[in-house]
Design brief:
Low-confidence stretches: 293-298
Largest sheet: 6 strands, mixed
Structural class: alpha/beta
Number of domains: 2
Helix content: 25-40%
Number of helices: 10
Strand order of the largest sheet: 6-7-8-3-9-10
Bound molecules: adenosine-5'-diphosphate
Radius of gyration: 22 Å
Order of helices and strands: EEEHEEHEHHHEHEHEEHEHEEEH
Shape: globular
Distance between the termini: 37 Å
CATH class of the largest domain: Alpha Beta
CATH architecture of the largest domain: 3-Layer(aba) Sandwich
Length: 298
Amino acid sequence: MKIEINGLDVIYKNGNHAVKDMTLNIEEGMFGLLGPNGAGKSSLMKILVALMKPASGEVLIDGRNIQKERKKLRTYLGYLPQDFRFFTRLKTWEFLDYAGSLAGIRNKKQRIQVVDELLDRVGLLEARDRKANKLSGGMKRRLGIAQALIGDPKIIVVDEPTTGLDPDERIRFRNILSDLSQNEVTIILSTHIVGDISSTCQNMALLNKGEMVLSGSPADLVKQAEGHVFNLRLTQEEYDRIKDDFHVISSIPSDVGWDAQVVAKEVSGFDSQLIEPNMEHAYVYYMEHKINDVSINI
Ligand code: ADP
């Protein structure tokens, strides 16, 4: 399903303007919302799943307004919130069974079948009889996505699902989402972790302070940093001098002092070599230079 966001503003009661005049189109497949904490990702997602009302603007799902047809359109939506927790002492399968009955699957036999299919899909069949609140962090997150999948949603919204997971679990979770995105669904994934986007999303938007500052493919973002990532061969004295002026991505000791990778508009006066940017470089470049420059111009 296709999502159109037109001129969206989200303003909290205390006056916080969390999303500012946002316009964005999201097609089928996996779409990433990338931005630092406070960028407005969670606020946007709550609007997308109709848990909050915008101050102005609209969200259309296949041309239908989510606020006007909330009840009907919510049946197409699955949501894994950032702070998804289990307050129950239910077993893993019982938790999903309960979620299934809330989602309106009345027939017990059918519900159990759905539950076991979902547990299998997220690799939790063997943990079926364990207490949900005793599962590991990664398993809980996978149970969270299973819960979001009940009712076969066409749009799945997941808010910062990989935060706090170890690398194995992060990759596993991303693979589950990638598999889902093969089935003509739209997955919207918010994260502040660049690697989540580069390895899974065909399209993305970069958010900062409530504004959408770039939308396109991850490769479009990477292109922005071409000509701005350098490998510098530095003496200790030079290294100490540049440390505070440039964003140093990595540094390793060398025969002369340090080999440092830096992201900068330009460098001169050092033994430097341009290198191919990756997503992490591009994110740093965009957030530190492009956005600051834009605000200076304004
Ligand atoms: P992100 O998900 O990118 O971290 P959020 O949508 O959570 O961003 O927050 C965007 C802005 O809205 C922040 O300035 C945050 O402090 C503010 N905000 C979020 N939730 C609330 C709330 N319930 N009440 C008031 N302000 C909020």
